[in-house]
Fold:
Amino acid sequence: MQFFIDTADIDAIRELYATGLADGVTTNPSLIKKSGRDFTEVVTEICSIVSGPVSAEVIATDVKGMLSEGRKLASIAGNVVVKLPLTIDGLKACKTFSDEGIKTNVTLCFSANQALLAAKVGATYISPFIGRLDDIHIDGLDLIREIRVIYDNYGFETGILGASIRNPLHVKECALAGADVMTAPPAVIKALANHPLTDKGLAAFLSDAKAAGISV
Ligand code: G3P
Structure:
């Protein structure tokens, strides 16, 4: 499963990307707002650090506007993935971009039928929002499981990109459900390495090494 970093924080991207754990980046208008920086400038800088896919979202809601903004975003760098909302206009724009070979990430997916539509128009990625479904008492992971079955039934090549990931359990469940990618905030990705028994075991080893006068 690939890992994308869900942030527009350049320092966090630089730090995490250097570990080799991350394969790409996803942004959205809320994350860009949080960064406090200019949209194009931030996306350009992210693409200079990350060679994998970098999702940048259109803000137009009509096809014409989405096509114009998407082409502008795609011209920033070869690894930009145009993020489009799961609306009829977003799907129309996705179809055009698919035909033109421009990579797309169809976002704000909350149902298996929506994911089916995105695959039919050739989306590169579909982003089911796990955490936001959990927020309203619907198991977000069930959605990933359903999409996996549907895509495998028909051989759709659209990548399932688990989004709105809030904790390490979401990551494990996405991997078990066969998501192709998951995108999570840097803190969640780093937390995957944590285990109290690792900390406890390491402390014991270090203490014994000191007592035995071991040096390497
Ligand atoms: O990738 C989409 C993600 O940024 C949304 O996350 O936590 O705002 O639901 P959240």
